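Below is a concrete protein record.
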Amino acid sequence: MKPIYTLIYFDIRGLAEQIRLLLIDNRIPFDEIRIKSDDEWSKIKESFVFGQLPCLKDDDVKIVQSGAIMRHLARRHDLYGRNEMERTFADMFYEGIRDIHQRYIQFIYYEYICFADYALFEVLDVLLILSPTCLTQCSKLKAFHHRFNQRPSLQNYLMKRASNNVRVNWNGKE
C-alpha cells in the first residue's frame, strides 16, 4: 500500500518527532523527506504555508503546525477520544504539554524567575531523590537544578529540609 502521507522536516527530532511516533506506533505508512541544510531549506521554504515545518502532505494537501498535524492524524485514525468531552480533554492536555515545552525553553535560557520554575525545581529534586543519576544526560536541566538550588534565599530552607529528612510523599516509596 502506497503511503498517503509524507512528513517533511529538518533532519532532527524537533517538532516532528511526536508526529513520527504517532505514525510509527499506529503502523501508519508514511514517506519522509528530511531537510539536511539551510541551503536546501531556503530553496523550498516559500512553498510551505507560513514558510514553516513540520509539514504533513496528505495526498496533495500540505498541513503545517505540529498541533494541527497531530489533531488531523488523530481524527483520521481514531486517536482523538470517543466523545466530545474526551476530545476537549485531549486538546487541553496537548496544549498544556505545548505550554510546558515553550516554558521549559525559557527556564533554561532566560534569567528571570517565574512561579513555574519552582514547580520544575521540585519535580527535578524529587527525581534526583528517586534516581540520583537521572539528570546525567540532561546538562541543561542539571544546570537549572544546580542554579536554583544555589538561590541564596532558599539555602537555609533546603539545608533544613535535607537535615530533617522530610519525606517526598506519604506512600513510603521515597
